[in-house]
Amino acid sequence: MAFHHQRRFDESAWAFAVILLQPALILIDHGHFQYNCISLGLTLGAVASICLHRDYLASVLFCLALNHKQMSAYYAPAFFAYLFGKSIRKKNPIFEVMKLGVAVIGTFLLCWWPFLHSRTAEAVLLRLAPLQRGIFEDYVANFWCASSLVVKWKQIFPNTVLAYLALFATLVSFLPSVVQQIRSPSHRGFLLSLFNSSLSFYLFSYQVHEKSILLPLIPASLLILEDFSLYRGMILCAMFSMFPLLRRDGLVVPYIATFALHLLLLNVPFLEKSLSHVKERQHPSLKYMSDGLLFTGCLIDLLYLLIEPPPRYPFLFEALNSLLVFICLVLIGLHSHIQQWSATSTHEQIDADKVKMN
Amino acid sequence: MRGTKQQQQHELQRQQAQKPMNGLREVLWMASVATCIKMLLMPTYHSTDFEVHRHWLALTASLPLNQWYIDETSPWTLDYPPFFAWFEYVLSFFARIVDPVIVDLTRGLKYDAASAVYFQRGSVMCSDLLLFLGTWRFCRNFPLKLQILSYLAIFFSPGLLMVDHIHFQYNGFLLGVLLLSVSYLKEGNDLTGGIMFAILLCFKHLFAIAAPVYFVYLLRHYCHDLARFLKLGFSVMLVILTAFGPFLYYGQIAQVLRRLFPFGRGLCHAYWAPNFWALYNAVDKMLSYLLRMLGFDVVMEKAAMTGGLVGDSKAHAILPQITPGLSMFLVLLSMSPCLIKIWRKPRRDNLLICVVYAYTCGYIFGWHVHEKASLHFVIPLVLAAVDSVKVAKEYYFVSIVKMIFLVLHSTAMWYGFAINFAPQTQTSVKESELKERNGCMSLCIKKKMFIAGLVGLEIYVQLIHHLVFEERLPFLPLMLISVYCSIGLMYAWLKQLSFVIEL
Q1: Do residues B360 and B379 lie in contact, with contact meaning Cβ atoms separated by under 8 Å?
Q2: CB contact, 8 Å: A257 with chain B?
Q3: In Å, how far is B36's CA from the nearest CA of chain A?
Q4: CB pairs under 8 A between A and B
Q5: Which end of chain A is more exposed for a tag (fewer CB within 10 A), N or C?
Q6: Burial of B327 (C-beta count, 10 Å sphere; 0-12/13-18/19+)
Q7: CB contact, 8 Å: B37 with chain A?
Q8: By the 8 A CB rule, do A336 and A195 touch?
């Protein structure tokens, strides 16, 4: 909301409803059952603090989120890049960085104190990084799973090598976004960078779950008034990618109901006039991609529900599903990277702020 | 200058309202959202009515026509008129495809596997299409904002959602047929309206309470000469014959009528519907206790009325016994002002209020009334409420008294009606500025206190009673709610009577 404070009430209210009524989040947290809302909430608090120029509060909140669920590390590069980029532009960069460092380390110490005291910190860390589970489980829409149709990673390399490979790939993929933010930090760029870094983690990281799609989804939803087509593409990808998981949980009817409700929320007849300029600013290529995804995804899911897969390929539909979503995610990722880099020239908010401060 | 601008606006509204497809997108949107919500309600609790309808599916699917009203395989015997039985028969074809056990007469008893639940809930959701159609047809000439308000109030009516989609019944489509019938009458198409009403009666005879209203109205408004009278009479007879004809042929009419009108049941249902008889019972009980304490020898039936048993026992200890005949007499008596009004002024605009009033009378004085029968007057009342502030206030009051746990609904309705009747309005409301000047949407202090009392009572019933009394006096909470709500409903009935008299 801090980011959108200049918008009209209609739009903000609608955006608010869309963000909070995420079907993906509802289904995962209240259907499958998890507590993602806590770490996501803390992260959102951190993001809001950044938009309100309260950087230390942001760091503290984000560290709390990290210590609640280590998956929040997907956002870490973005936070780092933005705060670092902002710090080096200030008068005394090293001092600023040290101040942030104190905030971060202080929060970590507070959370880990009991474990440090009883010297069980190492056991905790081991539990947090279960390398033995393999590079991917089931059929998740990321690079390793999609490319394993061609290159059988699990059969070629051992787990430790794969872990390093994944780390390298992830680093390379979020590097452009980080570099951009360090070079010219801005609020809009920060949100896009959040999206890009979490998406790159999702696509290339080790042992990614389907539920991790929530992480790129949230920044995309924050950008809904700026870039509606991005959000629409993301929500479709997220929902379709989660279908196999929810089907196993027996949540097909709630899935259909919440998915349909959300699509109805995105197309309210009596808000059409208020939201017309948001809808007009969609990028046509993404729009067509989303439409295609909607149609194909529904088709695959329908087949999945009704037909038995051939015995030779028992996971045919899951594989098709994740492949389709993967392709769309790559396209969306390309689009968002272009967006972030093109934001450099038009949104020099921080430099303007610097002039004001001096 | 301002006058012409307003005139232009009114003209624009009128033009927009004349378009036949006006509001169709909004209807579709609202209907889709309502259907999604109903989908989310699918796994919730369902009552014995679920088994009742499942049994009727099996009954109509497995047995020939002449056994439908005779079979006693299950205690849930068929007690709706023949068209409803045919409806179940048609549904049973699809049920058989989904899961044959549903329609098995013996193996399907008390069957509530996922397939049965999803099928039956799905069938209610599909039949609600008639409700959507009926509401849209009635409202399609309203200005858009009023349409949206009506759809909001009807499609998302918590009472309807709870009764139809949780408890499990098929009221939605029946109310849809009622609204269709009234919409035809509103347009002046009396013959079709009358025929639709006859069809409705052959689905659920409970709707026959408004039959006198229809009869008088059609007689005065449509039957200008003998030819028309014969046309109408013939059409209605045809409908009734189509429904009951086969049973007449098999000589089972007496049995059918016995099933349709089970007067062996008591005056009140196990849970007292908040009507006049609830107050009557309460007064009777109080008097019995009082006289007992004063030393009189009073024969008291133990928990005869709220104990869940619906027998024919001597219900009242002090006050005179009530017979079905007396109850029907009172219903007709209370409806008489309305009938007289229609006889004198058979105007199209008056019809809806009178129909609603008739169902209210039936609720207040009827025999063995269920709580759910209140839907018959609350839902159509919405459509009258969007037209005038006075009725809106009454609708709001009644709908709260009926369903006490509807915070979201009440705030939405309040907002909707308040916006609709804002005193200085420059938005598109409607032509009758006289009514607007009469007052904006606000409840008088008495109503507010009553509602506050209701909230307090509900808190008591849910939380405090158990702490104070533990297991003793288990009937007391429900009785208190019945009596309290019946006071509210008696007030609502009298208010409606005043509207009718003012017509």
Answers
A1: no
A2: yes
A3: 5
A4: 31
A5: C
A6: buried
A7: yes
A8: yes
Question: Six-digit token pair at B487?
Answer: 């006071």
Q: What is the per-residue pLDDT across A91-125, written as a single tens digit (0 to 9) for each?
A: 887 888 888 888 888 888 888 887 777 777 777 77
| Residue A172 three-state SS | helix
CB-based burial label for B206 (10 Å; 0-12, 13-18, 19+): buried
Give the C-alpha separation, B101 to B106, whole Å.
9
Q: What is the pLDDT of residue B437?
A: 37
Residue pLDDT, tens place only, B349-360: 888 888 988 998
Cβ within 8 Å, pair B32-A253: no
Question: Which token pair is B22?
Answer: 């006006």
Cβ within 8 Å, pair B33-A261: yes
A-chain residues near B36 (CB < 8 A): 257-258, 260-261, 264
Interface predicted TM-score of the whole assembly (ipTM), two decimals: 0.79
B102 neighbors B108 (Cβ within 8 angstroms): yes
Please, which residues have CB within 8 angstroms of residue B365's CB and are 6 or more apart in sequence? B275, B276, B277, B327, B330, B331, B334
CB-neighbour burial class of residue A170 (10 A; exposed 0-12, middle 13-18, buried 19+): buried
Q: What angle do CA A95, A98, A102 make, to 5 degrees?
A: 140
B119 near B50, Cβ under 8 Å?
A: no
Residues of B whose CB is below 8 A from A254: 39-40
B415 reaches A (C-beta below 8 A): no
Residue A184 has which token pair? 């010219």
Chain-chain contact of B29 with A258 (C-beta, under 8 angstroms): no
Q: Which residues share a beta bridge with B268? A: B369
User: How far does the CA of residue A246 sit from the closest CA of chain B (Å)?
Assistant: 15
DSSP one-letter code for A133: G
Query: Taking the model in full, what pTM does it have?
Result: 0.81
